[in-house]
């Protein structure tokens, strides 16, 4: 069996599970559903987390929980506790993201898709974890890259419709607004603007670029 896996953080799980686009994303990267992994704490956060309940409709969260139930959770800690501790000690990287980054650094066949832009920039620019940054560079998939893939695959209008109930997310609300979704060209131009800004902040080599 292939050792390729796609790790997904909880923010991205909400966006892809809530929009019903997770299967399209997995297919775009040639992953099977059984090759996806999420944080073990994700379902509890979704059920009890006030931030999610205050941000998204109950129908969206129910869809996300259904998607989460179909994804195997990470139950084993990273093999290198030193790397995990180093990541978790840095302001801007929470424990969940630290676990995902540490796992990513240990396995060359793993990819990570995350909606935590602050954590991405922190990892990419912190000298304390420069070695880990080097190991994961090119295998980190941000939200803008996901949206770009979906618009190319399904078109701007269909993608915007899928994410309509998730427009309370700031980036989604801007990049998939009715104005932006009026044409694929306009939508992709906006996405590229955000993506290029993040590339400038993290370095040319850090993010996976579709």
Write the layout of secondary structure elements.
Layout: E1 5-8, H1 10-19, H2 22-28, E2 36-39, H3 42-48, H4 50-55, H5 58-69, E3 72-74, H6 81-88, H7 95-106, E4 110-113, H8 117-125, H9 130-136, E5 140-141, H10 143-154, H11 156-162, H12 170-175, H13 184-202
Parallel strand pairs: 1-2, 1-4, 2-3, 4-5
Give average pLDDT, whole number. 96
User: Largest sheet, if any?
Assistant: 5 strands, parallel
Tell me the series of helices and strands, N- to C-terminal. EHHEHHHEHHEHHEHHHH
Radius of gyration over C-alpha positions, nearest whole angstrom: 16 Å
N-to-C span: 26 Å
Number of helices: 13
**What is the tally of beta strands?**
5
> Outline, from the CA principal axes?
globular
Any low-confidence stretches, pLDDT <50, length ≥5? none
Secondary structure category: alpha/beta
Number of self-contained structural domains: 1
Summarize the structure.
The protein is built from 13 helices and five strands. With 210 residues, the protein is α/β, with parallel strands linked by helices. The model has no long low-confidence stretch (mean pLDDT 96).
Structure overview:
With 210 residues, the protein is an alpha/beta fold. It has one domain (5-202). Helix content is 58%, strand content 8%. The chain contains 13 helices and five strands. A five-stranded parallel β-sheet has the order 3-2-1-4-5. α10 (143-154) runs antiparallel to α13 (184-202). The longest helix is centred in the C-terminal third of the chain and has 19 residues, at 184-202. It is globular and about 50 Å long. The two termini are 26 Å apart. The mean pLDDT is 96.
């Amino acid at each position: 069996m292939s050792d390729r896996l796609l790790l997904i953080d909880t923010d991205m799980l909400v966006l892809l599970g809530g929009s019903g686009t997770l299967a399209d994303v997995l297919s775009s990267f040639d992953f099977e559903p059984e090759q996806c992994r999420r944080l073990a704490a994700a379902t509890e956060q979704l059920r009890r987390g006030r931030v999610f309940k205050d941000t998204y409709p109950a129908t969206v969260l129910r869809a996300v929980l259904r998607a989460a139930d179909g994804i195997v959770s990470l139950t084993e800690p990273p093999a290198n506790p030193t790397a995990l501790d180093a990541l978790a000690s840095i302001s801007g990287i929470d424990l969940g993201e630290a676990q995902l980054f540490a796992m990513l650094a240990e396995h060359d066949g793993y990819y990570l898709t995350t909606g935590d832009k602050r954590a991405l920039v922190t990892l990419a620019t912190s000298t304390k974890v420069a070695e880990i940054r080097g190991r994961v560079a090119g295998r980190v998939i941000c939200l803008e890259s996901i949206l770009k893939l979906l618009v190319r695959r399904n078109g701007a209008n269909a993608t915007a419709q899928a994410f309509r109930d998730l427009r309370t997310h700031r980036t989604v609300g801007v990049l998939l607004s009715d104005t932006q979704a009026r044409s694929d060209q306009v939508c992709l131009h906006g996405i590229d603007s955000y993506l290029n800004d993040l590339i400038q902040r993290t370095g040319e080599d850090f993010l996976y670029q579709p």
